[in-house]
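Below is a filled-in request sheet from our internal design queue. Each sheet records the structural input a requester submitted and the sequence that came back. We keep these sheets so that new team members can see what a complete request looks like end to end.

REQUESTER: design group, bay 2
PRIORITY: normal
MODE: inverse folding
CHAIN LENGTH: 40
BACKBONE (tokenized):
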């Protein structure tokens, strides 16, 4: 699984629960959060 930094423009999602989380939560939990990016 690829883990991205929360500075992206996509939505942040918990890797454990699959629920969307805030950017603040994603920044404080980088190992358990993925940020979805836009499709190219």
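RETURNED SEQUENCE:
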């Amino acid at each position: 699984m690829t883990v991205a930094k929360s500075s992206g423009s996509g939505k942040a999602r918990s890797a454990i629960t699959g629920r969307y989380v805030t950017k603040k939560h994603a920044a404080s939990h980088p190992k358990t959060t993925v940020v979805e990016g836009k499709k190219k």
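SHEET NOTES:
- DSSP finds one helix and three strands in the chain.
- Strands lie at 12-14, 20-21, 33-35.
FILED BY: M.R.
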